[in-house]
Amino acid sequence: MRRTFEDLVAEAAAAPVEGWDFSWLDGRAGEERPSWGYARLLAERMAGASAALDIQTGGGEVLAGLPVLPPVTVATESWPPNIPLAAARLRARGAALVADDEEPRLPFRSGVFDLVTSRHPVRTWWAEIARVLRPGGAYLSQKVGPRSVFELAEFFLGPLEGSARAPEAARAEAEAAGLTVVDLRTERLRMEFHDVGAVIYFLRKVIWIVPGFTVERHLARLRDLHDRIEAEGPFVAHSSRVLIEARRPE
C-alpha cells in the first residue's frame, strides 16, 4: 500500500536529526561510497598515532566507532544538538570533546598532534591545522566536493552557480599553509531518494544543500517532487567527494 504525501511529510518532519547517523534513511535513500574507503583509512591512521584531533566531529559516530583510538584523542564540535551526543560517545572511548565555534583559533597549543582529521568539514582552516600539527604530522580529510547534490538543490532553488570546492583550490590552500599534499582524489557518486520523506529528512539534516529549508516554505515543491517520484521512480542526484592527505614537513 502506497503511503500518502501527507503521511510521508508528517513522519519525516517529526524525525530527530541530531548527530550524523543516517540509518533513518535505510531502504528509503542510498548513496554510493567513495572507492578509497575513508573509514578504513581513518582507522589505519588512528591506529598508528599517539595524539589525534578530529575537527567538526558531528555526533562522534565515526570517531567513536573506530577499533583503536590513540592514547590522546580529542575532537571539536560546534553545533549544539551534536555536542552532548558526541561528548557521551567519546567519553565512553576515553576521548575528550571540546565545544568550539568553528572559527580560528583552534583551542590547542602549537605542535601537539601527530594526526588531525575531519570528515566533511564546513570549512578547512589550513593555517590552524598546520600550526597544531607536529613536524612530520599528517592531516586526513574527506571533503564535500564541487556541485555536490546540485540536482536536488536546483529542484528547490533553480539554477545555481558552480561551487567553490574545487580540489585544486584545497591543494593550493594547504600548500600556502606550509603543508605538502601527498594524496588528492575526487569522485562523483550516485544518490537515489525513493520517497519525499527521505528528501525532507536529508534536507533537514544536511542544512547547506537548501539553505533555510522548511517543510512549510517548500511544501509546493515537495508535492511536485512526490508526484514525480510516484510517476518516474527514485529522484537521482550525485554527491561529490574529495580525499586529501597533507603532511607538515619535518
- What is the CATH fold-level name? Rossmann fold
CATH architecture: 3-Layer(aba) Sandwich
The fraction of residues assigned to DSSP E strands is 25-35%
Largest sheet: 8 strands, mixed
Q: What is the gyration radius calculated from CA atoms?
A: 19 Å
The CATH superfamily appears as: Vaccinia Virus protein VP39
Mean pLDDT: 95
Distance between the termini: 63 Å
Strand order of the largest sheet: 1-7-8-6-5-2-3-4
- CATH first level: which class? Alpha Beta
Q: Determine the structural class based on helices, strands and strand pairing.
A: alpha/beta
- Poorly predicted segments: none
The shape, in one word, is: globular
Per DSSP E runs of 2 or more residues, the count of β-strands stands at 8
Please count the helical segments: 9
Explain this structure:
This protein is α/β, with parallel strands linked by helices. The protein has one domain (5-247): Rossmann fold (3-Layer(aba) Sandwich), CATH 3.40.50.150. The protein is 34% helix and 25% strand. The chain is built from 9 helices and 8 strands. It has helices at residues 5-14, 38-47, 61-64, 82-92, 126-132, 150-157, 167-176, 196-205, 219-232; strands at residues 29-31, 51-54, 72-77, 96-99, 113-119, 133-144, 180-193, 235-247. The protein is globular. The model has no long low-confidence stretch (mean pLDDT 95). GO terms for molecular function: S-adenosylmethionine-dependent methyltransferase activity. This is Class I SAM-dependent methyltransferase. InterPro entries: 23S_rRNA_MeTrnsfrase_RlmA (IPR052939), Methyltransf_11 (IPR013216), SAM-dependent_MTases_sf (IPR029063).
